[in-house]
Amino acid sequence: MSDNQSNVADSDTLVDDVFKRWAQRPVRFAVGAPHTDDPEVLRALRAETHPWGVPKSEAPPIESEPPPQGENLLARLRPAVVILNHAPAAAVPDDANDLPLLMVLYVREGKRLVGRVLPLEATIGEIFIGRTPDNALVLDDGSVSRRHASLLYSDEGWTLRDLGSTNGTFVNGVRVREALLRDGDRVRVGGVILQGVLDSPRAQRVDEIRAHMETIDVLTDAATTQGLLSRMEAWANAAGRPEALLVVLDLDGLGAINQKYGELVGDDAVVAVAERLRRILPGGVSCARLGGGEFALWRSEPLAGGVTSLVEQVTDGIAAEALALQEGRLRATVTAAGTRVLPGADSPALVLARVREAMRLLKRGRAPR
Which of 192, 180, 50 has its CA nearest to residue 115? Predict the structure, then answer.
């Protein structure tokens, strides 16, 4: 087998694994330290400073206060702030290899933060997470409180505390005031999702999680658009394949839900739609989230009743009972459109684009031509 054929086979295996794991929540990933060769970041990593710039060799005042907001905090804060402002594709400094860390997986507003990491250094003391610059991990998202949560190390391990935040702190989907973190726990701070890796080895695993984030949607654990297209292309390249089917559906009124209840409830509704789909989809149908409240369903072989049957099953199944949210329930409907996909016809990307457009026309109340 040639190298190219081997790479294609490996890719197909990964895609199949992604879709199998979609139905087995929660998906837990391990992460690593940041890769960088920037001299400024290396100097920051070696700096021994208190969160507000006090040398560790000096005891901080008992009632120390953060520096005034008007100061240039970036030059004084500990290394995490510097790291968070660098692209995620850089090399791991040797002296960061053994530090536990948190990695940002999902930020609704500050998407530039996705993939960044916060090394957790026990000797620094309490590590604060929040929206303002006086935090070690600054999350520029409206759902995060000014000083939202903190992490503190003890003999038992790292303890996460909610600091009276408005939108709460969650560990693996459960709201907590205080919790002892375990390796692989997924933390939600307001609407921001982070992953913790506390056990060694750490640095070598950062590329793995970033690769998984290309094919698995962090919010819903469904496949991403890239994961869906990979699966469709694998079908298109296979010999003797039967016809397939594709359905695209969209949660109705997501904008109104965000406006009336807040974007956290909107995210919660999207997650609930993904959970409902897991329960009602027939065997062999895989799911991807395309963005917002839009999902695609793919089956690489014929289905009894065809596209019409699957569309009816999905739309009726979502509308049948209210979606279970973190706090309360919400009635919802979806609009869906689908098509048979014939071997040798248009490319997967073009087929997907046409079905998405048909669904959007239906949502606007017009029939596609």
Answer: 192
Q: Before 201, cis peptide (omega within 30)?
A: yes
From residue 40, how far is each of 52, 79, 86, 93 by CA, in Å? 18, 10, 11, 12
- The three-state secondary structure class of 149 is strand
For 53, residues 6+ apart whose C-beta sits below 8 A from its C-beta are: 67, 76, 77
Helix, strand, or coil (residue 223) = strand
Q: For the residues 3-9, what does the mean pLDDT come to?
A: 52
Residue with tokens 């400073």: 49
User: Residue 19: is its pLDDT beyond 50?
Assistant: no
Q: With contact defined as beta carbons under 8 Å apart, do 112 and 162 qualify?
A: no
pLDDT (average), residues 233-254: 92
Strand duo 294-299 + 137-138: pairing: unpaired
Provide the edge-to-edge strand list for the sheet that holds 127-130.
Answer: 137-138, 127-130, 149-154, 157-162, 178-180
Tally the C-alpha atoms within 13 A of residue 26's C-alpha that lie toward its C-beta.
15
Residue 320 φ/ψ region, left for φ over 0, alpha for ψ in the -120 to 50 degree band, beta for the rest: alpha
Say what the pLDDT of residue 211 is.
79
The model's pTM is: 0.68
Q: Which of 187, 172, 231, 210 is nearest to 17 (CA)?
A: 231
For 61-79, what is each residue's pLDDT tens digit? 334 343 333 333 222 222 2
- Whole-Å CA distances, 290 to 149, 171, 227, 258, 303: 31, 26, 10, 18, 23
Report H helices in the chain: 3-22, 39-46, 79-84, 206-215, 225-237, 254-261, 263-280, 306-319, 348-363
Q: Which residues, listed in sequence order, are joined to residue 329 by a DSSP beta bridge?
A: 324
Nearest to 65 by CA among 147, 180, 178, 155: 147
Phi first, then psi: what are they for 106, rounded to 5°?
A: -155, 125
Q: What is the rounded CA–CA span in Å between residue 16 and residue 29? A: 18
Residue 279, burial from CB neighbour count under 10 angstroms (0-12, 13-18, 19+) = exposed
pLDDT band (50, 70, 90) for residue 13: low
